[in-house]
Specification:
Elements lengths: L2 H13 L2 H8 L3 H15 L4 E4 L2 E4 L1 H25 L6 E7 L3 H11 L7 E7 L2 H10 L4 E7 L3 H10 L2 E10 L1 E5 L19 E4 L10 H8 L6 E4 L3 H10 L3 E5 L4 H7 L1 E4 L7 E9 L6 H13 L4
Parallel strand pairs: 3-4, 3-5, 8-9, 8-10
Antiparallel strand pairs: 1-2, 5-12, 6-12, 7-10, 7-11
Helix pairs in contact: 1-2, 1-3, 1-4, 5-11
Length: about 300
C-alpha cells in the first residue's frame, strides 16, 4: 500500500464515483479502477460497493478511509513543516447539538488556546451527522443528544461504528420565549397554554433503526396550531427575540444568553421526557490537549443544566 493508492481511495469516497474522482485526480478512469482493485486485493477487503449509481463505502471501507485521511493529513503536515519551513497547524473539530451551554463552552474554550497556529471547527447538527463526521470525516469528537428512551438504539449504533459514548449530562427540556410574551408571566407553563402560540422546532430529529416518520411523530410536539422549522440556532433566537408569540423547547440556556436575546425560560411540569448529551469518539482514540481543554469547559458550562 502506498500514498497514491490512499489518495485515490479518499478521492473516490469523496466524489462518490470513479468518473468524477478521475476528473478531480487527473487520472485515467481505467488506471484509477486498477489502483483500487490492487489496493483491495492487497488489504484483503472490499473498500467500495459498486453499482449503477456510483461507489459507496463498505463498513471496512469506512474504517480504512478514516485511517487514510489521518495518514494523508499527517504527511501534509510534515511536508509543510520541513519543505516550507512552516508551522504545523493544530486542529480541533467537533459536531454538537444546537445547545447554548455547549456553544458557550466552545466560546470560552477559544479564549484559552495558546497554540500560534490552530484551526477550529464547530458544527451544530443532529446526532446522525455528528456520528458520520467522526466515522467518515476529520472530526475526532462529537456530542450527540437523544431521549433516554432511545438509549438501546444509540448504544447499538455506537457499538457497530466502534465508537465510545461518555455521558455528559441528563436533563429535561424547558420552554424559552420572548420576555414580553404572556407565557413569560407564568412561573410554570402548562401544555394547554401553548395552543395559540407558534412553536419553533428542529426539523431533523434522528434515531437509528427507526423510520424518520416515527421519530418525528414522537419527537416533534403537537401542542400548537403553528410550527416553524428552523435548522440554525441563530435564526431561532432571532425569531424568539422578535416575535412574542413564539416559543421553543430547549436544553437550559445560560442566563447571559437569555439576557442578550431578551428571552426567558420556564419549566413545564407536564414535560417528563429525559434527554442525554453524550460525548462520542473512536475506540482507542487518545485525546489531544485541545480535546481535554474543551471537555474541561463543557464540565464547567453544564452546571446550568
Amino acid at each position: 500500500m502506498n500514498i497514491i493508492q490512499m489518495k485515490c481511495a479518499v478521492g473516490i469516497a469523496k466524489a462518490g464515483s470513479i468518473n468524477k474522482a478521475a476528473d478531480v485526480l487527473l487520472i485515467a478512469q481505467p488506471n484509477l479502477s486498477k489502483t483500487i482493485r490492487e489496493l483491495e486485493d492487497e488489504l484483503g477487503i472490499k473498500i467500495f460497493l459498486r453499482s449503477s449509481r456510483g461507489m459507496s463505502l463498505t463498513p471496512e471501507g469506512e474504517e480504512f478511509i478514516g485511517y487514510a485521511k489521518k495518514i494523508l493529513k499527517q504527511i501534509e503536515d510534515v511536508e509543510k513543516l520541513y519543505k516550507d519551513g512552516g508551522q504545523v497547524k493544530h486542529s480541533f473539530a467537533i459536531s454538537a447539538p444546537r445547545a447554548s451551554y455547549i456553544s458557550d463552552a466552545f466560546a470560552n474554550f477559544t479564549k484559552h488556546i495558546s497554540e500560534e497556529a490552530v484551526e477550529l471547527v464547530y458544527n451544530e447538527t443532529n446526532s446522525m451527522r455528528a456520528i458520520d463526521n467522526i466515522v467518515n470525516r476529520d472530526y475526532n469528537l462529537g456530542i450527540i443528544r437523544y431521549a433516554e428512551c432511545y438509549e438501546r438504539y444509540f448504544s447499538k449504533l455506537l457499538e457497530d461504528k466502534e465508537l465510545v459514548g461518555t455521558p455528559i449530562v441528563r436533563f429535561q427540556y424547558v420552554l424559552v420565549m420572548n420576555k414580553n410574551s404572556s407565557l413569560a408571566k407564568k412561573e410554570q407553563v402548562l401544555l394547554s397554554d401553548l395552543a395559540h402560540y407558534t412553536e419553533i422546532a428542529h426539523a431533523d430529529p434522528y434515531v437509528p433503526s427507526l423510520p424518520i416518520s416515527v421519530v418525528k411523530k414522537q419527537e416533534l410536539t403537537n401542542y400548537s396550531e403553528n410550527t416553524i422549522f428552523v435548522y440554525e440556532r441563530g435564526s431561532q433566537f432571532d425569531l424568539l427575540s422578535l416575535n412574542p408569540n413564539t416559543y421553543m423547547w430547549v436544553s437550559p440556556i445560560p442566563q447571559r444568553v437569555l439576557d442578550n436575546c431578551g428571552l426567558v425560560q420556564r419549566e413545564c411540569p407536564e414535560s417528563s421526557r429525559v434527554y442525554k448529551d453524550v460525548l462520542v469518539y473512536k475506540k482507542n482514540y487518545r485525546f489531544s490537549r485541545l480535546d481535554r481543554l474543551f471537555v474541561e469547559f463543557i464540565e464547567q458550562s453544564k452546571a446550568i443544566i
